[in-house]
Inverse folding.
């Protein structure tokens, strides 16, 4: 009937959860990088989108959970841009100190390029955090090309498969012009061992336009008798004036081949026979020459010589048979 009655208060505090994201592939951010280009004495800028997500649809960074609270203490760390010349200090970002839950804002990053700046490619990072709230924050890279910057990148080189003697060739590797200036007469050099890797196909690249990619392979020759093992060389790819320059390794494993010869008509062997003579109760001996040939000069038998160490020599000695009882030979002292 409505009486008696009473009222109580029940309260629930929802704890804050913070998330701060920089949207990749939005504004001027592509692949988590803002790429800028300009001449000396100019100002260049790019934008990034700062997001305080409070829903799955807004959460551009799927590796974390979205939040539910305002961000009130945004801070920005801008590293100097480093490259071939003096460091370039970016212009400070003019930004909000806070970002309400479920909102986003495009922020401008600017750089004044000094008049005396050396041409080339400079890199740095931008980090945004909210200390005491989302301390982890988010970050992205800056790439600044000053003037006509020359740059190359080498990719996709793999070891040569194991090989015997004869001609060898690496898989193709790519040379890409990643700068903003055309390159002329790109040349190749290779470090030792020159007896394994000796040449390139093509021998040089006459011109590589901006953004263009060309393919090259390393060729060589493994002479018969080349010691088995892994051979590694450093390939240097550079413009003919020495810049830009990049290096990459190429390797090949030379398979083992084995040969073991006993030299005829040397030491005490004549006609592939050792002839000994002695009275009873005496000891007679003779020598033979055991060879592990790795050159044609050492190869006393008409077979291919080898290229590897022999590590497991064994010897079989038959008894000497004749008109009397068999004679057991003394064991050979051998390596």
């Amino acid at each position: 009937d409505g009486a008696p009655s009473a009222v109580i208060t029940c309260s629930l505090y929802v704890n804050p959860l913070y998330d701060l994201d920089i949207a990749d592939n939005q504004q001027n951010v592509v692949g988590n990088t803002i790429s800028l280009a300009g001449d000396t004495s100019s100002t260049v800028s790019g934008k990034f989108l700062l997001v305080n997500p409070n829903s799955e649809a807004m959460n551009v960074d799927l590796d974390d959970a979205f939040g539910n609270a305002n961000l009130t203490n945004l801070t920005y760390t801008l590293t100097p841009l480093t490259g071939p010349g003096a460091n370039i200090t970016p212009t400070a970002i003019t930004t909000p100190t806070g970002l309400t839950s479920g909102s986003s804002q495009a922020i401008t990053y600017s750089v004044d390029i000094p008049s005396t700046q050396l041409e080339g490619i400079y890199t740095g990072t931008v980090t945004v955090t909210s200390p005491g709230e989302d301390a982890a924050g988010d970050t992205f890279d800056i790439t600044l090309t000053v003037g006509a910057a020359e740059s190359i990148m080498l990719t996709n080189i793999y070891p040569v498969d194991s090989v015997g003697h004869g001609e060898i060739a690496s898989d193709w590797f790519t040379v890409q012009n990643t700068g903003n200036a055309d390159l002329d007469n790109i040349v190749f050099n290779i470090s030792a061992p020159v007896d394994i890797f000796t040449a390139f196909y093509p021998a040089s690249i006459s011109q590589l336009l901006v953004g263009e990619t060309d393919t090259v392979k390393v060729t060589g020759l493994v002479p018969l008798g080349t010691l088995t093992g892994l051979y590694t060389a450093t390939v240097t790819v550079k413009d003919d004036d020495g810049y830009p320059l990049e290096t990459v390794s190429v390797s090949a494993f030379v398979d083992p081949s084995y040969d073991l010869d006993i030299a005829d008509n040397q030491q005490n062997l004549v006609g592939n026979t050792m002839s000994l003579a002695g009275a009873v109760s005496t000891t007679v001996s003779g020598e033979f020459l055991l060879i592990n040939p790795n050159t044609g000069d050492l190869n006393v038998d008409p077979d291919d010589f080898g290229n590897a160490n022999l590590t497991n020599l064994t010897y079989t000695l038959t008894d000497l048979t004749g008109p009397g009882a068999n004679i057991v030979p003394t064991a050979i002292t051998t390596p």
Notes: Residues 98 and 316 are 89 Å apart (CA to CA).
